[in-house]
Amino acid sequence: MSIKEEMSKRRTFAIISHPDAGKTTLTEKLLLTGNLIRSAGTVKGKKSGKFATSDWMEIEKQRGISVTSSVMNFPYRDYQVNILDTPGHEDFSEDTYRTLTAVDSVVMIIDATKGIEAQTLKLFKVCKMRGIPIFTFINKMDREGRDPFELMEEIEDVLEIETYPMTWPAGMGKRFLGVFDRNHETFVRYTGNETEDVIPYKELENSQYAELTDDATYQESEEQLMLLDEAGENFDREKVMRGEQTPVFFGSALAPFGVEAFFDTFIDMAPEPAPRRSTEGVVSPDDPEFSGFIFKIQANMNPQHRDRVAFVRICSGKFERGMNVTLGRTGKTFKLAQSQQFVASSRGTVEEAYAGDIIGIYDPNVYRIGDTILTGKSVFEYDELPQFPPEEFKKVTAKNVMKSKQFKKGIEQLVQEGAIQLFKRYRFEDYILGAVGQLQYDVFEYRMKNEYNVEVDLQTLGERIPRWLNPEQVNEALFDERNMLVQDREGNPLVLFKNDFSLKWFKDNNPDIELIDLFEVN
Ligand code: G4P
User: Please, what is the end-to-end C-alpha distance for the chain in angstroms?
Assistant: First the structure.
């Protein structure tokens, strides 16, 4: 196959959700449809002490490796599917956000009994600011959930995105009958076991289905569907591609029900790798020259294996093992001897890969997050990865003042690598660290000790709301410990507001001062 054909078969996406919405269960069912794993039981089962294939975090922790999001890939129909894991809970970190810069689309899972939850909202904002196409799977329809219209409305209001129900449910919980699949024009009947009964619209009039079609729940849903056809939004693929409309599917990852209907439509509609902006203009994914960027560096925390793995999202051309590449930042060329591609939980070596694929390469301590590697005469860099607004801030000091040289060096390198963010206060020598999750601090502390031999003290400033300022409007007199004025790595001024209340109070009292939310500008 040509490079163009290969890349057009790639579907690279992440699943975003709040913990417990069903990401692990859905991922496992997708792997099953790809026949990658033999039985669901081998994957899922926190109770049985086994881990889901996507729960690498725990496995890696046990092996003593630092943890971040990982990748699964498998063939489905004639496509090559790449799923990037976005860890949640206390393992939420900037890597979770950065993973979203390496995907072409996103599947958002919403628990039908709960609606939109905090973590979904955070991750959604990143997708929105990057214009990533979002497909929504409303899960747990086998339980008594919230009214589907109400869920649609919540998505539209809270996330400010148009919805288009691609499937529509008939009942829920005990009375869940199935879904109308508007894309395939079928009714998919819920049988309560793993087989799905797929009935084309035309055949629904047949008497053999009378028991179903006479059911009041079915009839109510059919009326709702007619209402949607007449008064609802039209499906608009262009809007979906721009991240302005989300196709919505209903189902149950656990049953599983509606998973295949969803995945088939998703694979057909989800975008292939898109051209990407670089310092040398837009690069097409079928460009014959290889290029990619590093969106994550995984440092091995096991002292016996000090290697690090850099995760590369391939953006163009063909990757071949042992090829020579140039690092865009320095212009230096070297050989990529070792590469690993992550297929489920077993690591295999990749011989070749194309735009959309993710490869792990050995990092002899030369890469930084956001680096571009490439072949060809023209040396360029892809657009810088955005800075994501941290939420938790801590003041950091070295326990032993004699170690201040290593302390500074360690911080500088870890900040440059993208492991954590650094802020400085005006007129103070304080080092303030910012992260989106506790995991980043754990990793920071560990690496400072093990790699730089410095023990650190971390003193929390708590959760803060960062807002960047227009440099011309900086007035030190307006700020104090509560609303702390600091500078980021580039020297840009920002305020760490104590809480929503302080932010609101400040806005009300200083209406002329512009406050910039990074989620809205990136
Ligand atoms: P997560 O990765 O998003 O955190 O969620 P996960 O898949 O682990 O699912 C969280 C819980 O919700 C699990 O139950 C899982 O079985 C259940 N679940 C997922 N999808 C569905 C669904 O479609 N319907 C129903 N009824 N439940 C669903 P648990 O009891 O917490 O875990 P376990 O004991 O099953 O391992």
Answer: 37
